[in-house]
Amino acid sequence: MDQPADADGENTTLWFNLLSEAEQGAIMQAIERSERPCVLVQESLVQLMQASKVSIRGVLCDYLRNNFSPAFRTEGFAFLVRNGRTISPLNIAVLGRRGASEAQPDTQLEFCLPK
């Protein structure tokens, strides 16, 4: 008989294929009990799965799609929070290049700060 997953102890990257519906339900219950849950999604892995025609589905997937939205993205990862919640992406910076001149350096560092 399948036992519900210990939501704090599961370590599975391909959870949508490896966890039973009961285990996914236990994780959803743990998320519901959490005051400010966040979900980290490696979007490059999702894109790889889609390109390989691997179906990402299940009750937990549906729950996350319906109840969470990206607060910010960085380096191929999306940081999801409950719909309607906003957060300040502190300590997130973007390092870029711009036209160099003698008066200005060619590197630009932009910090994301709360309004």
Short description:
The protein has 115 residues and is an alpha+beta fold.
Number of H- or I-type helical stretches = 4
Biggest sheet details: 3 strands, antiparallel
The CA-CA distance between the termini, in Å, is 51 Å
Radius of gyration: 19 Å
Alpha-beta content class: alpha+beta
Portion in beta strands: 25-35%
Tertiary shape: elongated
Helix content: 25-40%
Mean model confidence by pLDDT: 81
Which strand order does the major sheet show? 1-3-2
Give the low-confidence spans.
Answer: 1-7
| Count of DSSP strands | 5
Commentary on this structure:
With 115 residues, the chain is α+β, with helices and mostly antiparallel strands. The chain has a domain at 15-86. 30% of the residues lie in helices and 26% in strands. It has helices at 15-18, 21-33, 43-51, 59-67; strands at 38-42, 68-74, 77-82, 92-97, 107-112. The chain has a three-stranded antiparallel sheet. It has a two-stranded antiparallel ribbon with strand order 4-5. Strand 2 (68-74) and strand 3 form a beta hairpin. The longest helix has 13 residues, at 21-33.
